[in-house]
Amino acid sequence: MKAALLVALFSALLLTGCTSGEKKATELLETARFEEKQNNREHAQKLYEEIIKKYPDSATAKEAAGRLNELKQTKP
């Protein structure tokens, strides 16, 4: 019984950690989008690069990579 409780607690902690990382990645993505809208391309690019570096396997990183590629291809 105690082992099952420990496994459940450990699983909950792992899930919370993953959710926290995803939340941070999403917040960075939203900030980068805002920076783009404010015509601050340099800062937006840095934020997209940070997302890709810190959260490389996330869907957020894939979206950030797409935006970063688009920013690099277009002139301000």
Structure notes:
With 76 residues, this protein is mostly helical. It has a domain at 37-76. Helix content is 86%, strand content 0%. It contains three helices and no strands. It has helices at 2-37, 41-54, 59-73. Helix 1 runs antiparallel to helix 2 (41-54) and helix 2 packs antiparallel against helix 3. Residues 3-17 have low confidence and may be disordered.
Our estimate of the beta-strand percent is under 5%
Percentage of residues in helical conformation: over 70%
**Count of DSSP H/I helices:** 3
Q: Low-confidence parts, pLDDT < 50 over ≥5 residues?
A: 3-17
- State Rg: 17 Å
* Major β-sheet profile: none
Let me know the number of strands: 0
**What general outline do the C-alpha atoms trace?**
globular
Mean of residue pLDDT? 82
What is the H/E string?
HHH
Break the fold down into its secondary structure elements and pairings:
Elements: H1 2-37, H2 41-54, H3 59-73
Helix pairs in contact: 1-2, 2-3
Concise overview:
By secondary structure, the protein is mainly alpha-helical. It has helices spanning 2-37, 41-54, 59-73.
Key features of this structure:
mainly alpha; 3 helices; 76 residues; disordered N terminus; single chain
